[in-house]
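Sample 1 of the test manifest.
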Amino acid sequence: MSKNIGDKIFKGLAIFASLLLILLVISLFLSLVIYSIPSIKKFGFKFLIDKIWDPVADKYGALPAIYGTLVTSFLALLIAFPISIGIAIFISELAPIFLKRLFSFIIELLGAIPSLIYGMWGLFVLAPLVQLKIGPFIQKILGFLPFFQGYPMGVGYLTAGIILSIMIIPTISSLSREILMAVPIDQREAGYALGMTKWEVISKVVLGNARSGIFAAGILGLGRALGEAVAVTMVIGNFHDISISLFSPGVTITSVIINQFAEATGELKLSALMELALILFLTTFLIMGFARYYILKRIVKE
Amino acid sequence: MSYRTRKIINRIMLTISVITFLIGSFFLFWILGDVFLKGIRYINFSLFVELPKPPGVLGGGVANAIVGTLILTIVASLIGVPIGMMIAIAITEYHLGKLAWWSKFLTEVLTSFPTLIIGVFVYTIIVIPMKTFSALAGSIALSIIMLPVIAKSTEESLKMVPISVREAAYALGVPKWKTILRVVIPSASSGIVTGIMIAVARVMGETAPLLFTSFNNVYWSFSLTKPIGSLTVTIFNYATSPYDDWRNKAFASALVLAAIILILNIIARIYASKKGKH
């Protein structure tokens, strides 16, 4: 009898914890929606396409923030994706077996560094470097492109994109590595038996097999970049405008929230910030959900 | 393509792969090396025992922020670890069908979810009703960030425990809940402890969610219902300030923080590889 009660209570607690998790995500969504209502009512769809952010006139538009978030995140993905795949290939296919764990640990440590320390490095090391060396160098070679106009200020989209790319390398590469390592050995051997070189086996057999998984890893990295807050805030420059030049300072959804949330006094301003958070929530939730679902399904299939 | 060209392409591509790894590790050593070199000069005794001084006044430390981070992390662990473990137990030990699928899916999604949004959420449900920033709000935000990490690592460790271990306990007449608590969890303990250490290291470095929950406090505070200083928020404020003295303190504090986080990660890794079966 007493056994039965103990079991019921324990199972009840386990179910309660799971329900709590689901409830947590639902209430997270609902609270963002509720607090966004004043802003949604006032600005409607125009919130998404308006450039103005004027607390004095109480007018808010999200376009510069959305633009900045997308530009920096895709720039980060553009830089990080090939590097991460290279790292995954190195660790899974080239590194000696007894060093594989050490090498993956080194890359994983990159993911353990707090975003704050990335931000400090970005602000005090990378930003001056972009201003004085990297910026002028890019301008000399690609200065005719619209993306590299104007004087590099150090802080801006480019610096934020570079910082983000370093931060998402561990996410993409460790996941890709796992996916590459899951490709059966006999498939590689079959490739060698046909007289393929190592690179041909990697590119045609291994990567071909892991294509969809690596794609999902990239999406997951993108999701991380979209939501990254402190490091980006420190190097984006906090300038409420849109510029096609990557040297320009800008804002991102997260940097606007970080800089203005604690001092948001008016109801409408708080609501506009909440709506920004809601936009970020929906975007990352869909992206992460899609990538995770995709990966989960693949693992189940195997 | 001739055999020769294929060989050359092979050589080039494999070299590029090695270079990408070198780039990755180069940034690790550059970033950590930078914090170390800039921070080590300003590490002194008063950093650990004194309160912050106003700008312009030299000296002082971040003792209250170190204690604040410890309080926030401990309270967050007290909430996050048991709930996270129970979620994992629900997924692996009980057959809950759809509920298990959803909690597994949400754990996965939350693992790399923007922590800033979790801070905003806790602001709406704790800070607004309490009408004040508080250590409790900060701890709850951190515990939510811990949840998926704990749940995932516990789930993976529980799965490694063979069914026969459970069946041996059942055969002795041990009830299921006692089997889980006394037999299954102890056998999975190395993985679970590793997960806890990594989760603790992760939340200790969180800044964004604390800005709107525990906020900041430049004085000693041990109360859960008042704003509390933390290492990360202090570093953030100091690093973005125009004062050289504050920036130097930011680097010294960042070095302390980075050292704690790295050591936790390294211990976790060594612990996992020593005790784990491979």
